[in-house]
Amino acid sequence: MTSKLKSISLSNWILIGMILGFIVGLFLNFFVTDPFIKDIILIDNVFYLGGTLFIRLMKMLVVPLVFFSIIVGAASISDIRKIGTIGGRTILIYLITTALAVTIALGLGALIQPGAGLNMVASTDVSNVTLNQTMTDTILNMVPDNPFSSLASGDMLPVIIFGLLIGIILAKLKEEVAIVTKFFEESNRIMMELTSLIMKFAPIGVFCLMAKTFAGLGFDGLLPLAKYIICVLIGLAVQAFIVYPSLLVLFTRLNPIRFFKKFVSVMFFAFSSSTSNATIPINMEKVSEMGVSSEISSFTIPLGATINMDGTAIMQGCAVMFAAQAYGMDITMAGLLTVIFTAVMASIGTAGVPSVGLVTLTMVFNSVGLPVEAIGLIFGIDHILDMFRTAVNVTGDAICTLIVSFQNKALDIDVFNGKKAAKTIGIDYQ
Ligand code: ASP
Q1: Which pTM does this prediction carry?
Q2: Residue whose CA is closest, atom 6 of ligand 1?
Q3: Sign of the CA dihedral 17, 19, 22, 24?
Q4: Buried b (16+ CB within 10 A) or exposed e, 299-327
Q5: Architecture of the domain defined by 9-416
């Protein structure tokens, strides 16, 4: 019996934790009425503590892990032009998939009409942030004015840029800085080991997160917004199961079913934690297991978790249509193009943490003059959608990583197809 339990892989344990958490949560929600046991002891203490502790541990890893692995990754690509090409391509693919995601969402919103018949009236004047300001801020925020404060506050984009630059310099100076290079390599190794250790708690963490969510979920709020929820879920499903597999086949000819079989545990993890950032370590490991060179994944996955939010963009596209219909406002063709553009910018500006997509949604609403108070209507049910969209966000990062590494001959196809063992990045995740 114990040897049988031991043979279950960590990915499967995460899945088991998630399903058990879902069942226990629903059981508490429907069958346990005692508020002391249910709310005070379990939801607010046991599950909250277990889930939040785990998320904090994962978050604790992210900045040093990303920083060191980007430096080591960039330092190992000695050709600076290659870094430029990889970076440029990655960003381009990320932006295109996000633009595609918003467009799908706007189309679905026009079709399903999630806000039709709500007849809301805007009570306040709507403000209008200029687009120019939004874009300038986004670009400016990429460059750290103080790298140490970016590291301390966990601002991923400046951390990525700073790490890349350090890595490039290490590659340029080679032997002159051999000791410092070795220091970063060993630091990276230490962070990998720490990640392996913390990941062992993932099944318990995921169990607590799921149980807390589903024990406290109010189902009454879901009904009036059913059309909006369906609209977002269909959009997410189209992106995950039609757009991504098509892109994978088109650009790499790899088998999408094989991809999903391997990747599903990362999606579940993102689903239960609602944070792309905390998912970075296991996403990096997973794509390495699929044969992606760590030179590529150490850069593309953290970058994706920071700037590529296709699931969030889908929610934002649906929310725009929902609000426009609910408040009886027309959005012109130019308005729709503005939404696509701003949602792509918002995706770059959305940090990979729970619910931030709703915050950056104000930016999208402002750009076309929709009343920000409309966000209040969907606020209550956003937590559940956040889970689904985060799973799509991280899937987009992995798909783009596979495409970029394939194009740069940094993908071992035999490993992907299971014909050869993977040389993983060192996190003992299986
Ligand atoms: N929770 C999402 C993520 O981490 C961001 C969001 O849409 O709120 O990817």
Answers
A1: 0.86
A2: 357
A3: negative
A4: bbbbbbbbbbbbbbbbbbbbbbbbbbbbb
A5: Orthogonal Bundle (1.10)
> What contacts 21, CB < 8 A, 6 or more positions away?
206, 207, 208, 209, 210, 211, 214, 272
Confidence band of 130 (pLDDT split at 50, 70, 90) = very low
Cα(241) to centroid(ligand 1), Å: 19
Closest atom of ligand 1 to 279 CA is 4
- Measured by CA distance, the residue closest to atom 1 of ligand 1 is 354
Nearest to 393 by CA among 287, 270, 251, 285: 270
CA of 111 to the centre of ligand 1 (A): 25
Please list every protein residue whose CB sits less than 6 Å from any atom of ligand 1.
Answer: 274-276, 309, 312, 350, 352-357, 386, 389-390, 393
**pLDDT tens readout for residues 292-301:** 998 899 889 9
- Residue 310 phi/psi, 5° resolution? -70, -40
CA–CA dist 146, 423 (Å, integer): 36
Tens of pLDDT along 133-143? Answer: 466 776 787 78
The Cα–Cα gap between 125 and 368 comes to: 13
